[in-house]
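[stage:ingest] chain + small molecule (PMV)
[stage:ingest] validated
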Amino acid sequence: MLSGIAHKVTASAPGKLVILGEHAVVYGRPCIVTAVGQRLFVTATPIDKPVLELSAPDVGLEAYSKPFAKLGTGEVPKAAAFVEGALKTFLQHHPLRGGVRLETRSEFSSQYGFGSSSASAVCAIRALGGLIGLAMPPREVFDLSFRTVRDIQKTGSGVDVAAAVYGGTLVYEMEGRRLEALPVTPPLVVGYTGIKADTVTLLKEVAARAEREPESVEAIYIGIEALVEQGIAAIKKKDWKALGEVMNHNQALLETLGVSSAVLDALIAAARGAGATGAKLSGAGRGDCMLALAATKKHAVEGAIAKAGGHVIEVALGVDGVRLEA
Ligand code: PMV
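[stage:predict] done
[stage:export] tokens:
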């Protein structure tokens, strides 16, 4: 229902880091994800003609435009795909009078693996809803954003979308079948490898391996699922020793799955050597970020990660999900 058009609306959403359970989550297992306190912003402004005008200077896109009737067709640059896709999905449910200008801005680099594509889809959906005065319960923002991301990527669990919508630290299962907010966020240090992971390629590689060796990959996922359940209990009790052990076991299983790398292994070893009670890669692997659990010795762990060639990213974790900005 239309209830007047706002002049200009900005929505923001956080990035994410997977604490436990990546990859297995794509095959129906639970994972734990936390929202990171660097945000992505989308500003929506109404325009007269039924056209999308898009600028995303952080990812090199300026003055892109597309008539509403052609959304999602023809050449869609990677930098436009998720916002254009979000608009297309939104319009299938909610009509807009005229068109819209969308501008994105990010506090974090799209290289970190924080889930900027999903966060941009989430923000676009929420900002478009704000433009026509929709209250939009989080579940609706999640469903529309998840559909958008799946249409484009054809794969993925939606964990990035869940973190961007709900924020906090969450237990998550595919398509939002399980969404449970955890009461505490573990004291984690974030180390960036300097290498951009290619999630879709890695997911295909893992799927190909599962075709060849279904039983051994299934055994890895069963192991990861058990670790996630132990991790949930440890987080609820703030038992950082137990959580650290769980993280280390999860890393070993990810190594067996073949998604770690020499650079990640070096940063993880350095963090453990400096007193982190646990450390593992976060996300698809081969690059992006690693996490180290450091309830004490935070500075020593940060120093060791930096000395091993990592870039320590100072971020708050467990922050708010998508919101409209004043
Ligand atoms: O977006 P990334 O690279 O942080 O990966 C997210 C976690 C995966 O399980 C590897 C993929 C997914 O969609 O769940």
